[in-house]
Amino acid sequence: MAGNGEVVSNKQVVLKNFVEGFPKETDMEVKTSSISLKVEEGSNAVVVKNLYLSCDPYMRNRMTFSENPEFASYIKGSPIQGYGVGKVVNSGHPEFKKGDLVWGTTGWEEYSLIKNPQVLFKIHHTDVPLSYYTGILGMPGITAWAGFYEICTPKKGEYVYISAASGAVGQLVGQFAKLMGCYVVGSAGSKEKVELLKNKFGFDDAFNYKEEKDLNAALKRCFPEGIDIYFENVGGKMLDAVLLNMRVRGRIAVCGMISQYNLTRPEGVYNLMNVVYKRIRIEGFAVFDFFHQYSKFSETVLPSIREGKVVYVEDVAEGLENAPGALVGLFSGRNVGKQVVVVAKE
Amino acid sequence: MAGNGEVVSNKQVVLKNFVEGFPKETDMEVKTSSISLKVEEGSNAVVVKNLYLSCDPYMRNRMTFSENPEFASYIKGSPIQGYGVGKVVNSGHPEFKKGDLVWGTTGWEEYSLIKNPQVLFKIHHTDVPLSYYTGILGMPGITAWAGFYEICTPKKGEYVYISAASGAVGQLVGQFAKLMGCYVVGSAGSKEKVELLKNKFGFDDAFNYKEEKDLNAALKRCFPEGIDIYFENVGGKMLDAVLLNMRVRGRIAVCGMISQYNLTRPEGVYNLMNVVYKRIRIEGFAVFDFFHQYSKFSETVLPSIREGKVVYVEDVAEGLENAPGALVGLFSGRNVGKQVVVVAKE
Questions:
Q1: Angle B281-A168-A21 (CA atoms, 0-180°, nearest 5)?
Q2: CB 3.0-4.6 Å disulfide test: which of A198, A243, A249, B153 passes with A274?
Q3: Which candidate, A149, A230, A61, places its Cα nearest to that of B274?
Q4: So which domain of life are we looking at (chains A, B) (predicted)?
C-alpha cells in the first residue's frame, strides 16, 4: 500500500453522458487520473482504498439530469458514486484510523478522498465475506430488513409476493418472510433465478415473469387467496397486476420500480381503485431513514448468516474495467444475485 | 303514523338496470309497493320510517355488477340501499323502541324492514338538524374525521390539499385541517363552490379544476412548497398531478376516486415513481373500520357544530321522486355541498 502523501495513479469510472433510456457501457468511461493519498492538515477527510463496489438500480436515476435534491445527479466527467467497501489509507478524522475497514458511499475508482467520512460505517466483523458489506450487511440488507419489518408490518402466515426476488434486496426479503412463517412467492426473469428462489432461498413458489403472458393470471395461480404483502421492486405492469390480487388491508412496500427507470414516459397504472376497495397501503421508503438502526440490524443478521439461516448469492465482476458492464447489466437482468465489483481484494 | 300491523303503500326507488358508464335517472325507477309495518313475532327486526336519505359517490359502485363482497352490488328490481335517517315504527329488537330516531343503512323507500338493526346508530341529540346524521354527524362525518386524523397523521402547519372539497366529506376535512393550523387548499368544479370553500369554510385558497388547463401548474401555484397531505376524492389525472407536487414523507388518504367510477377503463396514473423518490404513503380506508369510534367522534364534533366552529352545507332534494336525479347529479357535480333527499320531515 502507498505511504503517506504519495501521489498514485487512480483508475476511475466517470460518467461521460447523462443517460436517456437504457444506460449503455459507453455512457461511462474508464480513465486513469492521479490522487494524493495524503489528507490535508486540519481536514476531517479520509482517503480510502476501494475494495468492493456495489451496483444498485437506484444509481440509474442519478445518471439522468435531475433537479431532485434527494437524488442528486452524478457530475459529468466525475467518477460514479455508489456504496462500497474500502480500507482507510489515511485519516484526518478522529473516528477513523489507517487500516480501518469501512462501508458507505464512495467513488468508482481505486482510491477516494472522502470529505464527509461520517457517512461511512466501520466494519467490525470480518469472519463473513467483506463483499457482504455491499449487500446483506450493507445498504441492500438494511433496505430489505427495514422495508419488510417496518413498512410491510408482516404477520405470521401472511401471503408475501416479491418481484425482482433474486436481486440484492429481494432474496433477503423472501428469507426474512420465510423465517417469520409467511407464505412466500417470488418472480424473476430466468429459469436459473427461479430455481435459485425455490431451492436456495426456500421460497414456497416462484415464476419467470418473462414466460407469463398474463401476470394477473400468474399471480392468481400462485395466490388463490390473494396477497397480503407485496415488496415492490419493479413497478408498471407488475404493480397493476398485483393491485388486482391484493387482499383487504394489504400492504405494498415500494422499494423501487426498476422496470420504469429507463422509460421516457413511465407506464400507466390503472388499477389504483383497489386501494380504496381493499384499503391498501402503498408506502415508499428510503434506506437512509433507517441507517441509525444499522447496529441493531447487523447484530440481528450476523448470527443468522453465521448459522446459515440466511444465505446470500452474489454475482461478482472482476476489476473496475468491468464495472460499467456490471451496472448496465442490472437493467437487462444479466446479474444472478447481488451484483458486486471487486476492485482489489485487500 | 301508521299503527301496528297495518299494511301501507310504500314508494320505492328500485334499480332497473346495472349501470355502465355514467348512471342515468332511467337506471332507476320510482314505483309503489306495499309493506306491513308489523314486525314478526320473535324477529329481531325493526321497521323504520325513512326521513332523510344520503346520496354518496360510493353508491355508484354498487350499481354495477361486481363480485367484490365488500361492495355488494344492488339487486335489480329491489330498492337502492344507502345511509339514511329514520324513525322506528315497530321493533322486535330490545335496543330499539318505537319512536327512536336512528341513522344507518336503509332502503330508498318510505318504510324499510331492517332485519339487522345492529347496524343502526341511535340518534341522541336533536338540537342539530336531523339531516346532519346523513352528513356531518353520519357516515361522511366519520369518514372525514378518521381519514384526516387517523390516515393523514396531520401536524400543525402542514400543507393540505383536498379535491372535491365542497362535497360531503371534503368540506369537513378542510375545516378540521384549518382547526389544526394547517394551510388548506381545495378544488371544486364551479365558481360558486370555490367561493364557498374560501368564504364559508375558511380554506386558505381554492381553485376550479375545470378552468385549469394544467393541474400540475395549478397545484404549483397554490403550493410552491409542495403538499404534505392530499385527501383524495377524485383519482386519475388529479392524483397524477398531485404526485408531482408531494413533499418528502407526504401522505395521501384515499377516500374515493369519483372521476374514475364511470369510466369503462380507468385512467392511467404515471407518476408513481414519486412514491419512492419522496417516500410517500398512499392509504385507502373504509369508514366502517372506524364505526366503533362513532361515540368519540360525535362527542368531539357536536360541540364544534353548536359553537359554530364547524359549519356544514347541504343540498337538499325534496321527495323520493327526486332521489334518482339527486344521486345521478353527484357525478356531474350538480350538488353544492352534501346531497340529501328528504322523504318525510317526521
A1: 75
A2: A243
A3: A61
A4: Eukaryota
